[in-house]
Amino acid sequence: MEKLSNLLVYEWNSWRGYLISHLAGAHCAAQWDDEWTVLDAACGPGIDTVLFHHCLSHAALFPRQRPAFERELARRGIRVLNAGLADMRKRTLHSMLDRAGLRSARAARQGPDDQFLFIKTDLNYGGKAERALPAELQPLFSAAADCPIRGWDDYRLMRRDEVEPGWWDNPDLVIENFIAHDDTLYRVYGCGDALVCIRAHSPDLIKKEDERPEDSWVYIDRRQLTPAIGDHGGFPRDLWRQLAGFVAQYPFDYFCLDVIHDGMRHTIIDLNLTPYYAPHPPKAGWFAFLRRGLRELTAGRPTLMEAAR
């Protein structure tokens, strides 16, 4: 399978099985205390684009000199995808959706006592990636040792009157409305202007997209997304409207979103800049569409983030 040879993925703990490993051929393992010489040596003569790909919920300080590395790459004329963007925490996503005028799953402190709420960690996937860091880095990236939820499999579904009052103000936790829905989960992958939306099915309380024969998909060019878009590809109009509002406000170069619904309204519940896929490459035609989008993005024109400035 053809992979992009001009894109270097500077990654920490996020290569094999991750979607980007099926798209790009060159990667360099990152460490917290890397000096510039490490990244400089990896940027061979054919590399003109770099993606920082660290599966931490807030990776702005990983590696330690990341801001300086991004500046030096820009000075040398090497494009950085998603430059300056490294915060995927759930509270951050809620704020992003609020600024874009989109609905979020954030729960209000006041409401019916018998309403079911989801209590999760602010860090993605229960902070699993952060716990893999060396002990000396835990205070910088991980939840506090006394955080009442220690992993994604410890997420709680509770009535509002069962939630501990102190949890509302705990910065390591996030409390969301439980959105009653069927087993449908929409996953959106974005590579440049190429967007692919997959309608998947998961019977689990915590929805995860696993490739199944009954999944359906549709692709669309980002520039076709407008608030007035209809039910493109047979997927719901409200889904496309939420996506249109998000990508108009936040032109990420490479990203993934998870969306669920309550039967009528669709809500973005997860942002991921290091999406996992599987050890084997996708077989569906949508993968070629994503690869083309990434190839166009790295072909010399400004990145989406640069164009938005």
What's a concise summary of this model?
21% of the residues lie in helices and 25% in strands.
Task: Please explain how this structure is put together.
- The protein is an alpha/beta fold and 309 residues long.
- It has 3 domains: 4-81; 90-104 and 181-308, ATP-grasp fold, B domain (D-amino Acid Aminotransferase, Chain A, domain 1, 2-Layer Sandwich); 116-177, no CATH class.
- It has 8 helices and 12 strands.
- The strands form 3 sheets. The protein has a 5-stranded antiparallel β-sheet with strand order 10-9-8-11-12, sandwiched between helices. Strands 2-1-3-4 form a 4-stranded parallel β-sheet. Strands 6-5-7 form a 3-stranded antiparallel β-sheet, with no helix packed on it.
- A hairpin with a 4-residue loop joins strand 11 and strand 12.
- The mean pLDDT is 90.
